[in-house]
Each structure stands twice: as C-alpha cells, then as structure tokens.
Design goal:
By secondary structure, this protein is α+β, with helices and mostly antiparallel strands. The chain has a four-stranded mixed β-sheet, covered by helices on one side.
C-alpha cells in the first residue's frame, strides 16, 4: 500500500484532511480538495486519503466512480469541454465531441492526449444555449460550431 507522503499532498491538504477526517460528509469534501490541488485523484492520492482517514479504499473508489466530477486521469494542459445539454445535443453537440476526439486521436476511453496537451470531456451545460452547439477550452467559449471549425480552434492552443 502506498504511503500518504507518496501521494504528494501539500501541508495545507494534509491539514485539511486532518481537520475533516471525523466530520460527516468528509469524503466528498476531501476528494474535492485533493482534485483541486492535484487536478485529478491519482491512485497514490486515493491510497493516501484512505490511510489518513481510515476510510476503506473500496469506498473511496466507489465515490470517485459514482460522481462524474472526479477525474482519475491527469487532465491535459488545455481542458476542452463540449456541451451535451439538450440544446447543444439537438444542434450537433455529439458531432462536435466526436470530431474533437478524432482530431486529437483519442481512443474511446482516453480522456487526455498522449502528449498531455489536451483533455476532452462532455459537460451537461455551459450556459450558452443560444449559441448551441458550444465548446469551451480553458474557459474560452466557442459557439454555433460546425465540425469544420474544430481543427482551427484546437490549433490555436497547440502553440500556447
């Protein structure tokens, strides 16, 4: 079993876990904080949380896998979110995400590109329904998209 120190937790995160370990609803709060600090919840981090809290690893992974917010793979430098909410879906959101994943050569279960430059995830709503279909990269929003626009948009982020 990995040691908590190997999880790479900061002093602040260790203090947060210590403060929350005996409070009701602690696991979700702790996992949010781990992901906030590290960008995702690594295997070492899950072991570290288990060791520091006494919560069984199976329960930790149960929570991580139940809530789609939690990521177990390191996100890319450029985080691409494609809206699949009702308006976006009806106006071609699935085509946008499929084209994005194809251009980035992501396999069915891949979240991030091999070079770590991009990660792609579907989201339920970006809040720009009037611009459907919508994609966001690092907070920059692109609306009324067509598949033909995706390559040009991604290229802007390759050189940053």
């Amino acid at each position: 079993m990995a040691k908590a120190g190997n999880a790479g937790f900061s002093k602040d995160l260790n203090a947060f876990i210590k403060e929350w370990k005996d409070k009701p609803g602690n696991l979700i709060m702790i996992l949010h904080r781990v992901q906030e600090e590290q960008g995702y919840i690594s295997r070492d981090a899950a072991f570290g949380v288990s060791e520091l809290t006494g919560i069984p690893l199976a329960r930790i992974y149960g929570v991580i896998s139940f809530y789609h917010f939690f990521k177990t793979q390191k996100p890319g430098k450029n985080q691409v979110s494609v809206c699949l909410g009702t308006a976006c879906y009806l106006k071609g959101g699935q085509d946008i995400i499929d084209e994005t994943r194809s251009l980035l050569k992501l396999g069915e279960k891949d979240i991030s590109t091999e070079d770590g430059l991009f990660s792609v995830e579907p989201v339920r709503c970006i809040g720009c329904c009037g611009l459907a279909p919508v994609m966001s990269i690092n907070g920059d929003v692109y609306g009324k998209l067509t598949k033909n626009q995706i390559a040009g948009i991604l290229n802007k982020y390759r050189s940053q």
